[in-house]
């Protein structure tokens, strides 16, 4: 799956990606798509167990995508198969005043996954070259310098044992319209709706430019980008599940095997008689 | 369930609690016990949704119990039905050197649930009147003062909108033996075994005294204790699930209902022409 979805090096033109495609899907029916969740749970539990014996490896799933792209859905349906032990979710909102007083990575560092943890970023440090760039929230020289800063930051993470899995959830302009209309149709989903979302939608092409720059300039060997076609929700969940599964298989975590003197311990525990 | 498991005011004698009891269980078969997880998920999602609209309420499940009592099992099987969005798990280990340089509540405060979050403490600030007391890790005057400090701390949490649900997972000496032996029988569970666990087990009666003092002296109206009979794993999970369910029903969270001008928003989204 990683080979199929990895962004090739060089310039990125999102129009060249088909958000309704289904690369590697083994069946034509979206509802048939299923990850091997038992195996994934097993691997995640082992990664966590390793950390209790001194292991320091971790995984960080970074999800970016326009509103309604499905970052929450992936969290619920894919990440929800894990944990909760050893899983840490963070949804990054507009930074607080306190956060704005610090470097843009300050609040990110506070939420990095510890040893053995699968961390999930629903939005991330990339907002600082996305919404910030689209709305000119800082001078160009400042956001321009962030691409290199992000690459260095992620290199530091990788060098410290974190596998960084970056997914861009790609949906079409029409798909977003349909999903926003669906939110309006359901009063129980009105809380997810914000009129400002439509103002963001009006800047679709500005966001495309910012996404393209992100996908091109932070597509490193140590932390490559994957573009996940996300018009089909089931496909999107399955594809990101497969990416996570492959990532965990590569780490190949194992149950720690402490050197226990089992007969002696059993003797200490045996019932008196 | 809260009425059935709540610790009565006054002196606590754990020998008077039956760890194999099944209060309120609607059937005689443990495997038939099931929470209404769909409803619980709905309530948890609404609590989280409320926080996105300014709500500040949260829930903190505190679990204490001797090794193998099932704090991890409850997290996996009960808390695992929620989230991961809006759920935060923390397993407290022996404090680090940095943590020891601060007040005992310092590391606890850093992991308190934010608005809308269901926080889970697998061990907690109560370790500072349990293992610390049993092993004389600080002078008696110091741990003695902590009961009042904890009551004040929890009052502060409750006043700030956190419902504190404190569960003591009660198992018998024999149940712990059986579970430790089971860990020895399964090489995949050896990582959970620590020879020091047997030294702790040898201090069972010291722990009973410390548990009794905890249950008596921090059993406040704002944050009462529940003793959950935990010899039967299915019963334990069900009972804590019911406690959580009742807690969430009492909060009665609702989907936020922002005042949206739906026709106008729909018009902005409608396809051209």
UniProtKB/TrEMBL annotation, chains A, B:
GO terms for molecular function: phosphotransferase activity, phosphate group as acceptor. GO terms for biological process: polyphosphate metabolic process. The lineage of its organism: Bacteria, Bacillati, Actinomycetota, Actinomycetes, Jatrophihabitantales. It comes from Jatrophihabitans endophyticus. Pfam families: PPK2. Residues 33-249 form the Polyphosphate kinase-2-related domain. InterPro entries: P-loop_NTPase, PPK2-rel_1, PPK2-related. This is Polyphosphate:nucleotide phosphotransferase, PPK2 family. The keyword Transferase applies. Keywords: Transferase.
């Amino acid at each position: 799956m990683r080979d199929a979805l990895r962004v090739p090096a060089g310039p990125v033109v999102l129009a060249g990606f088909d958000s309704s495609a289904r690369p590697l899907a083994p069946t034509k029916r979206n509802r048939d798509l299923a990850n091997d969740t038992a195996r994934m749970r097993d691997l995640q539990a082992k990664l966590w167990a390793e950390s209790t014996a001194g292991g320091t490896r971790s995984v960080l799933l970074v999800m970016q995508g326009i509103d309604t792209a499905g970052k929450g859905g992936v969290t619920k349906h894919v990440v929800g198969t894990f944990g909760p032990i050893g899983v840490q979710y963070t949804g990054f909102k507009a930074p607080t005043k306190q956060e704005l007083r610090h470097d843009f990575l300050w609040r990110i560092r506070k939420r990095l996954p510890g040893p053995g943890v699968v961390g999930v970023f629903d939005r991330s440090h990339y907002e600082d070259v996305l919404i910030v760039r689209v709305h000119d929230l800082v001078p160009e020289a400042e956001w321009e310098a962030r691409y290199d800063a992000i690459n260095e930051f992620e290199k530091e993470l990788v060098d410290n044992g974190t596998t960084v899995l970056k997914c861009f959830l790609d949906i079409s302009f029409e798909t977003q319209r349909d999903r926003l209309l669906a939110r309006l149709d359901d009063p129980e989903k009105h809380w997810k709706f914000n009129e400002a979302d439509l103002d963001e939608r009006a800047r679709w092409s500005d966001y495309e430019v910012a996404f393209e720059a992100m996908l091109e300039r932070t597509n490193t060997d140590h932390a490559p980008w994957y573009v996940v076609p996300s018009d089909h929700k089931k496909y999107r969940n399955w594809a990101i599940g497969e990416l996570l599964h492959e990532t965990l298989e590569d780490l190949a975590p194992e149950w720690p095997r402490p050197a226990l003197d089992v007969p002696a311990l059993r003797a200490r525990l045996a019932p008196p008689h």
